[in-house]
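Example (one chain per record):
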Amino acid sequence: MKIGVVTFPGTLDDRDAARAVRIAGGEAVSLWHADTNLHDVDAVVLPGGFSYGDYLRCGAIAAQAPVMQTIIEKANEGLPVLGICNGFQVLVESHLLPGGLIRNEHQHFICRDQKLIVENVDTAWTSEFTLGQEITIPLKNGEGGYIADQETLKRLEGENLITFRYSEVNPNGSMNNIAGLRNARGNVVGLMPHPEHAVEPGFGPDTSVAMRSGVDGLKFFTSVLKSLVEA
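Predicted structure:
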């Protein structure tokens, strides 16, 4: 299966995302921000970084890029799309997911291994997890505070559209401890932590078994490959 990984000016985790796709068993396909052709990929990852230098608002300019116009169209038709950190910001700015992401509550960039609770396994990107499972995924952001009006929050809770919540500590002041969301169809998922940095023993978060042994992020990529095979 072919998984596209988009590069915008300022993207910095595209190669990590492509490596995660390959480790999971997929074929990573590079997609350029100015290209409207998705080259027949079966799913798309919007990786982390600082697209367009985070000018205006994080993800706001990237949301207007030519490649996003095609991705929005295809996502609305069911194409699986994962937005990681800046990619989550792009999804929100593209209105594929609701709400907004603002400066961290404490006004500082944060980098840590973050515990999350899996709140939803009925998506193309989370089906390999167990509902309620606690996972550890690296987090690094300056504008990761999730916000939404009360009506939107009520809908997210009522329609079970929250995919991940922060556990033990809320690192950025996100409302309702929200770390990630899904759309109603379940093909679009966005989250602030970086699963692509927890896919290979020796390079992931520390665990009780060994240092750098955490690979909880790999299931994002094996989940989507499984969903494509079963589709």
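Caption: The chain has one domain: 2-230.
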